[in-house]
């Protein structure tokens, strides 16, 4: 039928032109709108980076103040949406709760769904940025059976999230610049990664002209899988498993190499990075800094470091160019900060939000965008009759 190439997992197929993020996987380079990730993570706030990704430029002081004010003004959730969480089971995974509530957001703002009206698109953008951390914190509060707090718009984006999530205990973090900065830096490192599975999902859903909330909600589900964002939770499960079983790191790595029941070294490997993941490097130094600052000694960090050493010295991993990715050390930091494991991927989602929004908007403005509609190779029966 004149069919094109078969490309499982889109390893070799570009589906868009994009001016947002540049990656050189062989050199370990990651840049947002041209700026190296290392500089942004060191010198900028998450809202600066969100502005950069979404609008193309770092904000001036005035622009940042306006942007920040707009976001603060939209943090409150409709009371009915707050009660929406009552309908979810207490043991709902926070990622499912997050995606469901973001999906439900679209029912409140239907009048503003118009991808061709820049003002409306921007209003939806600000709403989503402002409400996502609130929804994320409620997903957490729900899972531990605590009452929900209202946002405090006197606080910065990250401080507000900490407050909503940890309540009174957040004071300690907010007073501690190292903690706020560490979370800020982690969110920046997750903010975009060009056409990864969740962003491609956002684009695919958006290519049908579906609204921003619907598209991002689908992206959150795509992120939840352990091969993608869910890997940060899976890494902790793996480290705990090694610790609790008393198995040596060497034996575990042997089982990975034998592909025993599909066991993988979670937090290792990447489709694009074949040398090192520049985010992982920054996360590792952050993990050491945060644990030192909190005075925490976590044996799981020791296991992670040992696993990394053993794997990097092993031919299996060398031949396949498998290195630690961004998810390898983040869980150790989140754990030290007091986040439960089931919240790790939610933190990834808050970080990735500006990237999803930037891609959705870029796609909507690109005159060459077409509905996403991959081909297939049909391998079923030829015509037959009953
Ligand atoms: N442990 C053991 N073996 C691995 C791993 C791993 N983590 N990753 C890849 N391999 C092997 C794989 O089995 C294959 O071996 P062989 O050639 O013998 O069949 C070879 O390396 C090539 O792997 P692949 O599955 O073809 O690579 P991919 O580009 O399709 O997959 C990946 C990339 C990230 C899904 C994969 O490396 C993986 O499953 N890693 C573990 C999960 C993980 O940490 N995901 C987070 C990714 S980074 C952040 C994000 O996107 O969220």
TrEMBL record:
Catalytic activity: oxaloacetate + acetyl-CoA + H2O = citrate + CoA + H(+)
GO cellular-component term (any): cytoplasm
Active site: 270, 327
CDD domains attached to this UniProt entry: EcCS_like (cd06114)
GO molecular function: citrate synthase activity
NCBIfam families hit by this protein: cit_synth_I (TIGR01798), PRK05614.1 (NF004126)
Protein name: Citrate synthase
Organism: Agrococcus baldri
Lineage: Bacteria, Bacillati, Actinomycetota, Actinomycetes, Micrococcales
